[in-house]
Amino acid sequence: MPTQTEELRRRIVAEINAGVPGTKLGSERELAEHYRTSRSSLRQVLAALEEAGLIDRVIGRSGGIFISHAQVQRNLSDVVGVPAFLASQGYIAGTRVLSTKIGAPDATTRQALGITADDFVIEIQRVRLADGSPISLELAQFPADAFPGLLEQQLGGSLYAILESKYGLVASRADEHIEAVSATPEEAKILGIKPKSALLLITRVTYDQNDSPCEFSRDLFRGDRTRLAVTAQGRGVSAQPSGAAASVALQNQAG
């Protein structure tokens, strides 16, 4: 059962997620009255939310507590699941599973996973949440023969953790391609944004410890909530393992 402080935090975060960046939530006194809590408890929660980048506190006659959606940082140098990098930045990760199925792969998926038209793939579509707010829409595909029973697992957490614990597979590296796209009406509705809003499309092929492709995914991250980070290496730096660096290629959409 959550503590009173955690319950207060959840209520304020819910109001932040339902609001618009820049909107004034109220003064400290008004919020204490609204949530029927003490000023000391409220200040403790507000300090944590400010540190996480979810609010701005402005001093002065026209000041108060304002919504300031923080950007989630996605480090392209690491092969980790969404829950791991959200937790490392202080967010509470969440997942909504939209659909699952086993079907025939298209030509792009066959090439990415090194399978044939006679093979089948497991397809999992999910929405990822940070503190209850949608940040990405992901579609992950796996070779069905390699992962029997995958759809019977709890799919609300890290799929990489399931692959490692149940199938002994470790994600060793990934090839990713990033491009800027516009949200379709359906994608916008799922992510809680306006149609044609900016999205970052990350197309990824993940390889296991035997350097065999094990996942092909298409992740759409909200452009207003996501920042990409990458470690680049110059010729003046001694060689590092291949997994320590990454590159980003931005591509303009035709038309």
Strand order of the largest sheet: 5-6-7-10-9-8
CATH architecture of the largest domain: 3-Layer(aba) Sandwich
Query: Helical element count?
Result: 7
Count of strand segments: 11
Oligomer state of the chains in this structure: single chain
SSE order, as H and E?
Answer: HEHHEEEHEHEEHEHEEE
CATH C-level of the largest domain: Alpha Beta
Radius of gyration: 21 Å
Please tell me the overall pLDDT.
Answer: 84
Distance between the termini: 52 Å
Overall tally of domains? 2
Helix content: 25-40%
Structural class: alpha+beta
Strand content: 25-35%
Shape: elongated
Main beta sheet: strand number and arrangement?
Answer: 6 strands, antiparallel
List unreliable stretches of 5+ residues: 239-255
CATH topology of the largest domain: Chorismate lyase
Domain HTH gntR-type: 1-70
GO molecular function, one term: DNA-binding transcription factor activity
Keywords: DNA-binding, Transcription, Transcription regulation
Pfam families: GntR, UTRA
Walk me through the topology.
Blueprint: H1 4-18, E1 24-26, H2 28-34, H3 39-51, E2 55-58, E3 64-67, E4 72-75, H4 82-87, E5 93-103, H5 107-113, E6 121-130, E7 133-143, H6 159-167, E8 173-182, H7 185-191, E9 198-207, E10 213-222, E11 226-229
Parallel strand pairs: 4-11
Antiparallel strand pairs: 1-3, 2-3, 5-6, 6-7, 7-10, 8-9, 9-10
Organism: Mycolicibacterium iranicum (Mycobacterium iranicum)
InterPro entries: Bact_HTH_transcr_reg, Chorismate_lyase_/UTRA_dom_sf, Tscrpt_reg_HTH_GntR, UTRA, WH-like_DNA-bd_sf, WH_DNA-bd_sf
Protein name: GntR family transcriptional regulator
